[in-house]
Design a protein that fits this description.
Shape: globular
Number of strands: 9
Structural class: alpha/beta
CATH architecture of the largest domain: 3-Layer(aba) Sandwich
Strand content: 15-25%
Strand order of the largest sheet: 3-2-1-4-5-9-8
Helix content: 25-40%
Largest sheet: 7 strands, mixed
Number of domains: 2
Length: 229
């Protein structure tokens, strides 16, 4: 019986079944956005397909060019994750936040010899209130299931930026999994963030989402906001 299970597990069907069961397990134990990501990183899982391979390369190309072209000196990101996307970044100084203590410890170990980077756990009562010229949110918004968490997060993005905010996310209303809830976030920003912030550019994904190839395509696009001086 064990040999049969091993054989089935190596087939395409077996691999898909394992992936489905892992997702089902995550959905059944979903207990909020913060808990989901802490449990995920504790289980030695990574930030997801969007932070690896060609999707990570695409994001890095857009962001590195933006930082260079606009002479950005400081970058702050809400949702650094496992730090793999960061490995492709070319930022003069970087501040990374995350809700997962495990993720923050991973990043501190990975970049312990890099004095251009610092990492902080998001804690409502103890955030140091750091600011940067550019604030990033990459593949995070649609993982914020609770409305109050989403709203507080977006408010913090804009409050922490002195020049630009770049959001990489889906931008429509649809929930597709227990831990995936897309929102028309630009509509919320229009109604709740200062008019001094303007959406100045949208960059469509080089690899738009394809159901037949979900790990190498994405639902996200880049939305670049600028603060009028």
């Amino acid at each position: 019986m064990k040999s049969i299970k091993r054989i089935v597990g190596k087939t395409v069907f077996g691999k898909k079944l394992k992936k489905f069961l892992r997702k089902k397990s995550h959905n059944e134990k979903f207990r909020g956005s913060k808990n989901y990501w802490e449990e995920r990183y504790k289980a030695a899982e990574n930030s997801g397909a969007g932070s690896y391979g060609r999707l990570a390369d695409f994001k890095a190309e857009i962001l590195n060019d933006f930082v260079m072209e606009n002479n950005i000196r400081t970058v702050l990101e809400f949702g650094v994750g496992d730090g793999n996307q960061l490995s492709l970044a070319k930022y003069p100084h970087y501040i990374g936040y995350d809700v997962s203590e495990t993720a923050i410890q991973l990043c501190k170990r990975r970049y312990k010899h890099d004095n251009t980077k610092e990492f902080h756990l998001i804690n409502t009562n103890k955030n140091p209130g750091l600011k940067a010229e550019l604030v990033l949110s990459l593949d995070v918004l649609y993982h914020l299931i609770e409305d109050h968490v989403f709203e507080a997060y977006v408010q913090e993005l804009f409050a922490s930026a002195t020049k630009y905010v770049i959001i990489y996310s889906s931008n429509y209303d649809k929930q597709t999994a227990a831990h995936v809830k897309s929102r028309k976030f630009t509509r919320w920003i229009d109604s709740n963030i200062s008019d001094a912030w303007k959406l100045v550019k949208v960059i469509k994904n080089k690899y738009p989402f394809d159901e037949s190839n979900p790990d190498h395509t994405s639902i996200s696009d880049f939305y670049i906001f600028s603060l009028e001086q």
